[in-house]
Design a protein that fits this description.
Length: 289
């Protein structure tokens, strides 16, 4: 097995590939939202840029923010479970939704806002379905409050082992889950045009000078972070050593002071013992006299 480097889950490749190939992104979104591709009349990527200064930052997230037929759609891939992911997705939705209201507009003009998360970990342990969609509902009547909030989670770890090549949604998700060249070639070998196009786009982007430069920046950022962490740990260790040296020096001085006090008391006690012994001898002498 030949391990892929990078995979479709790699944030830089994910964004660069779909920005460079927006038709593939439209097809992916159509499958994720279960809408006909032909029904999409308006489609725009709002954040196609990928500023080099954020590449490689530990908590940077490269998402794709789109407008689809008047709706806000945000797509993100998440590999590591860093905790509180549902709250994070809801916060992300709230930020995009609230920023859509322009000055002087009424609340009714706020567009439907959809957050799509493709995640490579198990988020919901109480179900086996790989796709979960959440909308606000009344808790007893299950009446929908509004359709303007929609959170989609696609859990790659729950995909079935056997995938029918007619199920394009599962094939796309399998592409994101693929970790080896063999898995990528197997999907390509199914002869599904849009998946083969995605695999070809993968090879084109990963060999491009633009991607290689981004990868260089990412590796450099990783090295810089590791060096900064090493220097911080070294400075911290040195500071801790100096701190304990001062503490030990203080303890030593305190112990020396106490040793002197003990020595003084010991000498005083020895002197008193001698005085007592002399008195006893004097008393004994008087008795004999």
């Amino acid at each position: 097995m030949t391990k892929l480097r990078p995979t479709f889950k790699t944030d830089i490749l994910f964004k660069l590939l779909f920005v460079k190939h927006p038709d593939l992104l439209r097809r992916l979104i159509a499958h994720l939202l279960n809408i006909p591709f032909e029904s999409i009349s308006q489609f725009e990527i709002r954040n196609p840029e990928m500023p080099p200064d954020i590449i490689g930052k530990k908590f940077c997230r490269l998402d794709i923010n789109m407008v689809l037929d008047g709706q806000n759609v945000n797509l993100e891939v998440q590999v590591e479970n860093e905790g509180d992911y549902p709250e994070r997705a809801l916060f992300h939705w709230a930020r995009i939704y609230s920023n859509s209201l322009l000055a002087g507009e009424s609340y009714t003009s706020l567009p439907r806002t959809i957050i799509i998360s493709i995640i490579d970990f198990t988020l919901f342990n109480d179900c086996t379905e790989f796709h979960s969609e959440f909308q606000p509902l009344e808790v007893t009547r299950y009446k929908q409050l509004t359709d303007k909030l929609s959170l989609h989670f696609f859990e790659l770890q729950k995909l079935p082992d056997d995938i029918d090549k007619s199920d394009l949604l599962l094939l796309w998700l399998a592409l994101f889950k693929a970790e080896t060249e063999e898995e990528l070639n197997e999907i390509d070998g199914l002869g599904v045009p849009e998946l083969s196009e995605a695999v070809n786009a993968y090879h084109t982007v990963t060999t491009s000078p633009e991607y290689q430069e981004y990868e260089r920046l990412m590796v450099k950022a990783s090295h810089d972070e590791a060096q900064a962490l090493y220097n911080a740990e070294r400075r911290g260790a040195e500071a801790e050593r100096v701190k304990w040296k001062k503490i030990n020096k203080g303890i030593t001085k305190e112990n020396e002071k106490k040793d002197k006090e003990i020595e003084k008391v010991t000498k005083e006690n020895e002197k008193k013992d001698k005085e007592i012994e002399a008195l006893r001898a004097e008393i004994e002498q008087l008795r004999k006299g």
